[in-house]
Automatic annotation (TrEMBL):
Residues 352-399 are annotated as: Disordered. InterPro entries: Kinase-like_dom_sf, Prot_kinase_dom, Ser-Thr/Tyr_kinase_cat_dom, Ser/Thr_Kinases-Pseudokinases. It comes from Cylindrotheca closterium. The lineage of its organism: Eukaryota, Sar, Stramenopiles, Ochrophyta, Bacillariophyta. One of its GO terms (molecular function) is protein serine/threonine kinase activity. It holds the Pfam family PK_Tyr_Ser-Thr. Residues 352-365 have a biased composition (Basic and acidic residues). This is Protein kinase domain-containing protein. Residues 23-343 form the Protein kinase domain.
Length: 399
């Protein structure tokens, strides 16, 4: 990804506003803590909703774009390209209110953001974002980064060769192992570019994790789910330093910076911490802090400073960057301009290494995906503890 892609000066087209009666949706694809996602199968515009010439043009343009994609999908047998996200109707009152706020925040961010590595909101409801029937339409993603890990584990497991005791593995198929490294470092680069773009617009993401990173049908990386993102304003600034008085305990515990978990002031470098953990996971293909309970995680990681162990075979530059990213001292963590530039260089270097991979890359064994933990056992393994907008430790949701 070229450096110039980190900012986007293109003029923003107006977001088409649609009524739910103009949209035909298919069977639900999935649901999150607050929302439902369904495929968009039909758009039939009603001119009564053309509230201005600008909106009439935007709506017609989207309908034509949708129709072209549907025809292409039908001819190639691929899946539809758009999904509709709306609020679940089975939530208790307190969660229902949180969900409405979450959806409104996400739509507000996505209506302003334009970047090749951030999911695109293509249309939204013509109603108040704080009403229960509000929705928006997104480009459809085929797979999350978390699911991509399973794919890479299988490739590595199938191509790592044979175990020769003290001699290690032999007969590894280096070509396929190299391809996975190229994909993985390219993924790290694209995440870095997306977060750099957000920080350039004074936005903290606050929930960077593999479940919130996806790939579309063209294998283009897309960061999504902006319900916990926060625009930094001068009123948030704490006097005397570069920290801000923001909500604590926000995000997914496995990837959450210690200062957020402890309810302290923080800044955009909480995303740097999360990136360090995700980058370790990209390299190791293992789940960070597997088998730790929330209590043990708090004692060992948040308070004790324990971090995942980088493999000795990884390039020193990679190890140095990830350990700086998750440094307990927020000042010591790098900014994303450095991170994004570094991975631009790493991808370029890998492209010229003609299939060379880290020396022990073949030893990454394919692992079966563990079942997600239940709230009863409150473990980090197999699930992330997500604390929404100031929830208290102990009242956690495992996702």
């Amino acid at each position: 990804m070229a450096l110039r892609s980190r900012s986007n000066g293109d003029k923003k087209d107006p977001i088409p506003l649609l009524a739910m009666t103009e949209i035909g949706i298919g069977q639900m694809l999935g649901q999150g803590g607050f929302s439902l996602v369904s495929p968009v199968e039909q758009i039939q515009l009603n001119e009564v909703y053309d509230t201005s010439d600008e909106q009439a043009t935007a709506r017609a343009k989207f309908a034509s774009h949708f129709s072209n994609h549907q025809e292409a999908s039908s001819s190639t047998g691929t899946i539809p390209n758009f999904v509709l996200k709306t609020l679940r109707k089975d939530l208790p009152e307190e969660e229902y209110i949180k969900g409405i706020i979450d959806l409104a925040i996400e739509s507000e961010f996505l209506s302003e953001l334009r970047h090749p590595n951030i999911i695109c909101m293509t249309a939204m409801a013509n109603s108040d974002p704080h009403e229960s029937g509000f929705f928006f339409i997104l480009e459809r993603l085929e797979i999350t980064l978390d699911q991509k890990f399973d794919h890479w584990r299988k490739i590595v497991g199938d191509n790592m060769g044979y175990w020769m005791g003290p001699f290690g593995y032999c007969c590894a198929k280096e070509k396929y192992l190299y391809q996975t490294w190229m994909e993985r470092i390219s993924i790290a680069r694209d995440i870095g570019n997306a977060i750099y773009y957000l920080h350039s617009n004074r936005i903290i993401y606050r929930d960077l994790k593999p479940d919130n990173v996806g790939l579309d049908g063209n294998r283009q990386l897309k960061l999504f789910d902006f319900g916990l993102a926060k625009k930094i304003t001068p009123s948030d600034h704490r006097d005397g330093d570069d920290l801000y008085l923001l909500t604590g305990n926000t995000g997914s515990l496995r990837y959450m910076a210690p200062e957020v978990a402890k309810g302290e002031s923080y800044n955009q470098k909480v995303d740097t911490y999360s990136f360090g953990i995700v980058f370790w996971q990209i390299c190791s293909l293992q789940t960070p802090y597997a088998n730790l309970t929330t209590k043990t995680h708090s004692l060992k990681v948040i308070l004790g400073g324990q971090r995942p162990k980088p493999d000795r075979s990884w390039p020193n530059g990679w190890k140095d960057l990830m350990t700086r990213c998750w440094d307990a001292n927020i000042v010591a963590r790098p900014e994303f301009d450095e991170i994004a530039s570094y991975f631009d260089e790493q991808v370029e270097d890998l492209q010229h290494q003609e299939g060379e991979v880290p020396s022990r890359a073949t030893e990454i064994k394919a692992k079966k995906r563990r079942k997600k933990a239940t709230p009863a056992n409150a473990q980090l393994d197999g699930g992330d503890t997500t604390i929404q907008n100031g929830g208290k430790p102990g009242a956690v949701e495992l996702v």
